[in-house]
Amino acid sequence: MLIKVQPDVPAHSPPVSTPPWLAPLVHPTAGSTLSGAVDGVLAHLGFASMVYGAKGAGPMDERVFVWTTAPPEWVQEYDQNSYVEIDPRVRSGWDLPLPLVWDSTMRVEDARGTYFLERAARHGIGSGVAMYFFIEDYMVMLSLNRPERVLSAVERSRMEARMGDALHFGYLFHWLYMRDVIARGMRPQHHGAPLSPREHQCVHFAAHGMTSNDIAVKLGITERTANFHFSNSISKLGVLNRQEAVAKAVSLGLVKVGALGNSKQSAYFASRPAARRQRGRPKSKSPSR
Question: How far is Cα 99 from Cα 181, in angstroms, rounded to an integer?
């Protein structure tokens, strides 16, 4: 989910030393904007755009907050097509111990990953570095992007040499802005936006008793991706967790639950092959002649 959230300029500066190139973020001047400050930092680091996402990791608050300088057209396309399922930065990055430097030559699992890279490149997102870290109760991903689809050896080396500065920026951005937004209880900007088709499916199956793992198996995605869909749905519906999301979706008529209100009423179970439904039942003995 890529939906812009515009935090306010921070009221106070962090009690840490800051290099000059980060000064516009830490000490904004009158009339300065967040986008302008970020653009200056990105230019210093050698990137053209960024996307930052923070997802609540606890059961009390599972919302996701995102801030990006990507084109609005790409933001909309990514959201409604649930590209989080095929974005190779998301699918494989969390399992890596180090930042991921990527371009169109990166290894992808299937044709869908290649399709994603082609679509992203049309919007100026052809390569970059993605970083992943946990801060307090949030999972954070920061992706810094360039338009080039293939990085030369020299460009890749330069990018790797700036890894420390990029991480410095990511932690500072979270501390100054998004952490403040979340702590003050501000709503995600996509509050009230319509659920994507995939998000609707996830909420529907959850309303019929399916867990994230059940849904992942049903839809052919990972459990982590199913949880991302729930976080997006939670943010859009204006609630804090999955249980509240299901209740609100039912109250709004977005999801209809069968009479028993459990997984046995789901179309998933109704369409399962008879052989699978019979699995585990004792075989009946043939009548003796």
Answer: 26
